[in-house]
Prior knowledge:
Pfam families (chain B): ABC_tran
Low-confidence stretches of chain B: none
Number of helices of chain A: 22
Organism (chain B): Tissierella simiarum
Distance between the termini of chain B: 64 Å
Low-confidence stretches of chain A: 48-58
Largest interface: A-B, 21 and 25 residues
Shape of chain A: globular
Mean pLDDT of chain B: 86
Strand order of the largest sheet of chain B: 6-7-8-3-9-10
Order of helices and strands of chain A: HHHHHHHHHHHHHHHHHHHHHH
Oligomer: heterodimer
Strand content of chain A: under 5%
Radius of gyration of chain A: 27 Å
Order of helices and strands of chain B: EEEHEEEHHHEHEHEEHHH
Structural class of chain B: alpha/beta
Number of strands of chain A: 0
Number of domains of chain A: 2
Number of strands of chain B: 10
Largest sheet of chain B: 6 strands, mixed
Mean pLDDT of chain A: 79
Shape of chain B: globular
Structural class of chain A: mainly alpha
Keywords (chain B): ATP-binding, Nucleotide-binding
GO molecular function, one term (chain B): ATP binding
Distance between the termini of chain A: 36 Å
InterPro entries (chain B): AAA+_ATPase, ABC_transporter-like_ATP-bd, ABC_transporter-like_CS
Largest sheet of chain A: none
Amino acid sequence: MKDFKVLKILDIFKFIFEKAGIDYDVMRRILEIKFTLDGRRVPTIVGNSSSKKKDEDSNSFIKSLGVYLLLGIILVFFVTKADNYLYQMSFVFGILMFMMMTSLISDFSSVLLDIRDKNIILSKPVDSKTLNMAKVLHILFYMFFITISFSGPALIVSLFKQGGIFFLIFLAEIILMDLLIVVLTALLYLLVLKFFDGEKLKDIINYVQIALTIALSVGYQLLGRLFDFVDFKNVVFNPKWWQYFIPPIWFGAPFELILNNNRETYLITFSILALLVPIISIIIYVKLTPSFERNLQKLNSSGGKTGSRNNRITDFTSKLVCRSEEEIVFYRFATNMMKNERVFKLKVYPSLGFSIVFPFIFLFNGLRNGGLEGLVSSKMYFSIYFTALLIPTIVMNLGHSGNYKGAWIYRVVPFTDAKSIFKGTLKAALMNLILPLYILISIIFMIIFKGKIIVDLIIVFLNILLFMVICFRTTDKSLPFSKPFELAEQSQGFLVMIITFFTLGLLGLIHYLAIRTNYGSYIYIAALIIVNIVIWKNSFNIALEELGE
Amino acid sequence: MESRDPIITIRDLRKSFGTKEVLKGINLDVYEGQIIGYIGPNGAGKSTTVKIMLGLIGGYHGEIKILGQDISKGNVEYKRKIGYVPETAEIYDNLSAREYLTFIGELYGLNYKKADKKAEKLMDLFGIGNVYDSRISSYSKGMKQKVLIISSLLNDPDVLFLDEPLSGIDANSVMIFKEVLSELVRKGKTIFYSSHIMEVVEKISSRIILINNGMIVADGSFEELKDKSMEGSLEAIFNELTGFKEHRKIAEEIVSIVQEVD
């Protein structure tokens, strides 16, 4: 087993722990095990980009710190100028708190919520004080490293640009903020567990992970643009009552208070809140820990009822789009899998988020260049094609599942060809993921472009249908939900991505040319319908045998 | 025999989850060298009793003494002499067996080298020595169960709590394990064995305790229980004492539903 440097540092403080009645050696051993386990987990922040090699103990946590370091550069811009401390620093703490909270929830929930600890460790001669201290230290170590990497660049720059006092306030507040966030997260879990069961909590964690992934990619795009608009020098702050409930503003206030000697009442109030609330919340947390532990037991129990209302909708849509009984079976199966499988959601939902956002980012650009009237009369609505970019992601991920081992079921059922399996699954993806999204964006586009684009929207939809099958044909075919996710990124080459994107571009181009001629769009629609019918009929004749393990 | 001090004494143990009372006054004395077969229907309170004795669940009423020590006092020393195989295979399965077992050994106060040596030998004897350094997540169910059994034996416990310890284990290993249990008992250890497999319980237990609805409804050796209830097997006694007589009717219904094809 590896020796962890942090633990050697901790050894210096051994006597403090022993004085507090903690079995230091046991605590150290528990931490050692926990760190080893952490090294074998892949944090969300790197999870989507890195290929997962199975090499032993390549500490993926260290790797994720590099990502945090890079992301943290954005904070540097806020601390170089000294225009308006309250705004700048509220912003910084807004970003910091969001990042810390989401990464704590998405990656360290397993620590807060591990009920194995209790059964494995407490059944041994270890008292709960020692275990709890190990857990707290574990989370604090993690928070410490992430915070240092994320805020490190800004901290160093601030020391040179803004001087020592600024640096010290910044550092002290970061520590307070970390405490607040650990407690807030724990309290959030406590609240959820009080009213719901473990499954619900896992769902919530899942959605936070998805939100983190979306926010990271989209947020940074938008944040860059924000700089063009916001002129920090000229904003005048007038306090409103609701601002007393926004923690980042509390943390922005002390800078103004101390560095600019601004003694406004609201600044003093904010500063007091920044200091007191974290301390009070720690006290509340300590008081609530036993109740937290008790509620944790619910994690295992699941009164997980899946609504019968959903079933009726699935029943209805399946009969609408499926031709055979077998197809309906797999339509329903895929619908349920996509709804319940958390890893699938984590892989696919972020791209749902992108495909909502991207069309509008382009509209946004158009708006800035030509004004609203220029935009409406332009062909900018073609940006709706960006929605279709999520289709390759969906199609590739449909073959994968966290519970891929369940796929033996395909081999024991009396089926010879995979036609209805694939068709039902793709249709389920269309009806559950793509269509709702497309309709939503279409409605917004109809409002912006005043309804005249309905024919184009129909063309785009037919193209999407066609594109789905093209994606299916170009990517490796594997039975739905039958492969582990680790293989998802590796097996599908970059080339496939290029081919599919190129195809989409081509379809869009034909569309663009078609609407320039009279009746061109109607001819294109007719052609698309025929092509779609043919291609949907003929693309799925695959024998089950061909799909080897 | 009764003159010896009991290893475990339980007096009027009650426990409620919310408004539901799961244990309604358990009284029990367990003596050295007994294998207690602790049986009962699902939800009767078996695992709860075991977990309370291990200090995993608090907030109970009544008194429990293990190895002469009142466990509610917060002193965990008594656990040094206890081994535990939990019902659900809870284990840090991203660790290798070496990492996991040495960790558990050290929690019991063994030093690393000794724990490692002992664990490796036991792994070998259970026929899974070749995967000692592979991650537990790659093990089959039976292999995981063997690791759990080994982890419960590392500290040379005086009292063993086994909750369905044989699930997934092959017949040869089961034979070894049963032999190990009787050998341990001969050496003066006490074993608390809960399981749903009545044949095993019937064979290995020197004393059977049947719990139903949070109360002990039968307590004695298999022979005593047989005499009392006039039934031939533990399974039949179990059915009788838990008031379950409809198995034939339910079975018939199941088969008729299985045959429904339209």
